[in-house]
Amino acid sequence: MHKLSSENIVTLHIQTLTPTLMTLIQQLTQKAIALLMRLIATPSVSRDEKQAADLIEAYLSKCGAEPKRHHNNVWCMQPVTADDHRPTLLLNAHIDTVKPAATWQHDPFKPTLSDDRLYGLGSNDCGGGLVSLMHVFLHLRERTDLPYRLVFLASAEEEVSGKDGIESALPLLPKIDVALVGEPTGMQPAIAEKGLMVIDCTAHGRSGHAARNEGINAIYEALPDMEWFRTFRFAQESPLLGPVKMSVTMVEAGTQHNVVPDECKFVVDVRANECYSNEEILAEVKRHVKCDAVPRSTRLHSSRIAPTHPLIKAAVALGRVPFGSPTLSDQALMRFPSFKMGPGDSARSHTADEYIRPAEIEEAIGIYLHMLQS
Hints:
Elements: H1 6-12, H2 19-40, H3 50-62, E1 68-70, E2 73-77, E3 88-94, E4 112-114, E5 117-119, H4 123-140, E6 149-155, H5 166-169, E7 178-181, E8 190-193, E9 197-204, E10 208-209, H6 218-231, E11 245-253, E12 259-260, E13 263-271, H7 278-288, E14 292-295, E15 303-304, H8 310-317, E16 323-325, E17 338-340, E18 355-356, H9 358-373
């Protein structure tokens, strides 16, 4: 059985870690790790999560949590009475994974414990956060004295921001006041997260023979706009996320060497800080560039939560350090305050031989329990 180490006791920053609480954390950790190993052995690449959703739904049903499901999103709620007016806290993590890289040395679908590491696809991103939040929810589910009413949601299609993922499930949930997302952050609270917008740009010219001084070269027409994307700076910079970042990442033009191209297409990757909506950024782009600029979507917004929010203050009281995250999560589709805080390390995500340490799950469960009851 995995033992609660003295090192983990220190990282929990809990002054009253009683033997009863230590035993509880151990028990929940063992259950969480056992479920995580079953999930690793159940392939759940984005848009193909049915088997994993079936497993989670059956597990929650066996625990008496009365789960509901839409597509491959599975959720359950605390029982509520008519006079229960507590705000609602969403506990969320995703069940899907990216495709395994070709350089895995372990079998990505065979959970392998070695040197206090649990290897397996999705173990870190974000199976560890999923099973930790789930078991904390199951333990607290019958509590009516908590400051929040809890909802647990295991969402699908996070890695591809799919329409059948959390975006389709949120309208079926009660009104959410705040969300805690279990992405791997080393159990530090990411209180701001960059958004994403991809813009397809097209500069127009007129074709002609390259040997003669005729035509209008669409590549040259595109160059000033590309330079604008490279050099423009939005006025508001975030102390957590820095400036809005715009990068030209793909260029396509021309049909053959002796024809002046009449069209130049290029792609711009835009990462918004929490100071701007994607719509505001797009309006600024269209004011300055000559080319056609068409966003693929404006739905993946930046997110934030006030550092003075009670949940963040509770995390800080446990020695946690708020920061800003450049990576995207399901928070981009939430229109309410949210933050992400989960076991593991974001640097391990999407890598070969992805792993999580059981001790990290243990720490997460202890911190979640303390935060949600404080």
